Amino acid sequence: MSNARKKVIVRRFTGDTLPGYLPLSGFVRGIAPEQTIELLDLTGRIMEVPLRAVKMVSFVRDFNLADAVNPERLTRRTFLARPRNEGLWVRVTFRALERGPERAADILEGLAATDLSLIDSMLEDAGLHLSPPDNRSNTQRIFVPRSAMAELQLLGVVTSPSRVAKRPPQSAEQVRKELQESLFQAPTPPNTRPN
């Protein structure tokens, strides 16, 4: 595990945000249900934030502390079309503090890894690491704790198209001959009658 700490903004269910520094993985301490995140705040002190109170952790380029509403600058929460990058296309529905028919569900889409790091993040950090829908925004990566999820949907598996091996160019005569042979080598069904 790397000791390098990255800039993060921790968004809690109460709506407030905490800027600070965390390593990329392995930052959750304790045993469920008393798990905590050890956040190095901007003054240099370590704060223990209960994981149950965390909605998401955004790994950001800049803190944007002047913006109290959306310092993560996460403008899009869903993909406009099929993602171009590889990964598991997932939709996370966050648990709500208040239940009610007028309250809309808070959702977030992202791309999860398709390798063993997916399982590592679920086991080590008790959550899911995602790439956000807009990778040009201030948010580079998002961590959603398992305790913050009400529902997780797999929308698709995005992979790169497989490459077809190029065949050497053939002359028109060779192509015609191969097609002719393939026509007469097709097996005839047993219940057909001759003309």
Radius of gyration: 26 Å
Low-confidence stretches: none
- For the terminal residues, how far apart are their CA atoms? 75 Å
Helix and strand content put the structural class at mainly beta
Helix content: 10-25%
**DSSP strand (E) fraction?**
25-35%
Please summarize the sheet with the most strands.
8 strands, antiparallel
The number of domains: 1
Question: How many helices?
Answer: 2
How many β strands by DSSP?
11
The backbone outline, from C-alpha atoms, is: elongated
User: What is the helix/strand order?
Assistant: EEEEEEEEHEEEH
Question: Overall mean pLDDT score?
Answer: 84
Please identify the oligomeric state: single chain
Verbal overview:
- With 195 residues, the protein is mainly beta.
- The protein has one domain (6-158).
- Helix content is 11%, strand content 35%.
- It is built from two helices and eleven strands, in the order E-E-E-E-E-E-E-E-H-E-E-E-H.
- The chain has helices at residues 117-124, 172-184; strands at 6-12, 17-22, 28-29, 36-41, 46-50, 54-60, 87-94, 107-112, 127-130, 139-145, 149-158.
- The strands form two sheets. Strands 1, 2, 3, 4, 5, 6, 9 and 10 form an eight-stranded antiparallel sheet that branches. A three-stranded antiparallel sheet has the order 8-7-11, with no helix packed on it.
- The longest helix has 13 residues, at 172-184.
- The protein is elongated, with a radius of gyration of 26 Å.
